[in-house]
Amino acid sequence: MKELGTAAKSLFANVRHIATWDHARTLVLLAVVVHYVGRWSRPVRAEGLAPVLRRVRLAILRRVFAWMMLIPSNRRRVEREMASAVDDIAKSLMPNTPVPVVRALPAQGRDDVWVMAQVDALQRLGGHGEVDGREVYLDGRVSGTVYHGGPHLNRLLAETLERFLLTNPLHPEVFPGLRKMEAEVVSMVLRMYHAPEHAAGTTTSGGTESIMMACLAMREWGRAERGITHPEIVVPASAHVAFDKAGHYFGMVVRRVPVDPTTRKVNIGLMHRAINRHTVLLVGSAPNFPDGMIDDIVSIGALARRYKIGCHVDCCLGSFLVPFLSEAGFVSEPFDFRVDGVTSISCDTHKYGFAPKGSSIVMYRKESLRRYQYFVSSDWVGGVYASPTLAGSRPGALIAGAWAAMMNIGHDGYVQSCREIVGAAQTIERRVRNEIPELQVLGKPLVSVVAFASAGSVNIYDVGDQMSRRGWHLNAIGGDMPAFHIACTRLTVPVVDAFMRDLKESVAHSHTRPKKSGTMATVYGLHSTTPVAPMLLNEMAARYIDTMYEVSAP
Ligand SMILES: *Cc1c(COP(=O)(O)O)cnc(C)c1O
């Protein structure tokens, strides 16, 4: 005891000796330097120097642009250009129509016949003159977007929704049947993803909410169990933008890691370097949205285990396809809870599960992780309030709809739809590789998305424009490789030949023409390559949303 005291005293003396003013100043300086070097080196370590320098350059250009906008004549010119672009947006969003414009409640209620006549006309709005004018997307020329489970299922869903129209799972004691259905929907999806005992999940309103909940849960986990106050998540460059949305809403830094240029899977070495003491979650997609690749989930899970942090698999798009790939006779890759280290998975029932829109599942390996997404308030004047997800009241009809879809289609039905949809995607992939040398297929797609880039001689956005002109609604993708993709659905299956014919024609019409940017390119051509564009892009995007809420064209 006495020795300890002497040791402490001498230590204290030493500390006093060190802590002179000079030393203190140096120490403070050192701390500041270490802080900033740490802060700036982290993104460099994760992404490499070039992308970080590009961002710095962009930030400088933004500042310069902001200064230039202080000059009235500049501002007027940009404003004019923007107004004309917004005009174009408005025209494309608001087709001419005799359907009357409504701005306020009708003074007297309209009768059912009037309402249904309007509903009918509104449903046809913007239609391309199909036989019955209904549901113009049924011709299958749309990438993703409409996950159609067939006319029979839709009737069943409509009837189920009708019965549960006004139900709300916020009040399980009022709707015991609905509570049972919700628990069963989650249980069925957990089984599909080979969740271990004590795994748990919740329903959500869609993939974005599922992803946001998984990020929130890991933020809370990090704070509670690790004392992490500045949480970061590490995601592939190809991961869905919902992770950025989660970062934005929940105050988390999102570090994006480049993908391998050939395999299009996230670069595991760089992901490793992006991990630091603030990291709470690693992410992989199965598959990702841009080019449909499944990341190396085994390696990401192993990293997560090594650093004892979370690993989320975004299977929103993979939903009810990836779990059935093997059984449908296709090549598959590990993606679910059987992979060590995977702690959460998101799966969209409203995609290839064919549930009504507004339905998704988030799952956790352990119940204790699910707890971290709950919100509970015990001292509200309205009583103890506990809710599992973002919403308060929730649409019970959509949960009942998901339940009905899953029960009606069943395991065999989903295997069959996987066979058809992935089969269509693989036919497209094979035929493009064999028949269109001007295009290259990105990576080796295993699921429903096939992405095409130019093999050199064509302007890919021009090809995309040509496809738009032929009635196709495809997705342009930016990033390191300009391309566009098709996400096959049940509606694509019968139009694969039409797709190939139109694609060949589009390529033929593209490469003889001079390289100019088309409309797909004008959206993506403004990408980070043009100096002034990015700040205009943000403003344009905001005006696009403004325009969505205009009742009629100006
Ligand atoms: C669709 C999708 C999501 C979620 O999108 P929501 O529109 O919110 O349902 C997330 N990740 C991927 C890869 C997706 O394709």
Automatic annotation (TrEMBL):
A single Gene Ontology MF term assigned here is: pyridoxal phosphate binding
Q: Name one GO biological process term.
A: sphingolipid catabolic process
Q: Write the protein's name.
A: sphinganine-1-phosphate aldolase
Pfam families according to UniProt: Pyridoxal_deC
What InterPro entries does this protein's entry cite?
GrpII_AminoAcid_Decarb, PyrdxlP-dep_de-COase, PyrdxlP-dep_Trfase, PyrdxlP-dep_Trfase_major, PyrdxlP-dep_Trfase_small
Q: Could you give one GO CC term from the UniProt record?
A: endoplasmic reticulum membrane
Q: EC number(s) in its UniProt entry?
A: 4.1.2.27
Coiled-coil regions, chain positions: none
| Stated family | Belongs to the group II decarboxylase family. Sphingosine-1-phosphate lyase subfamily.
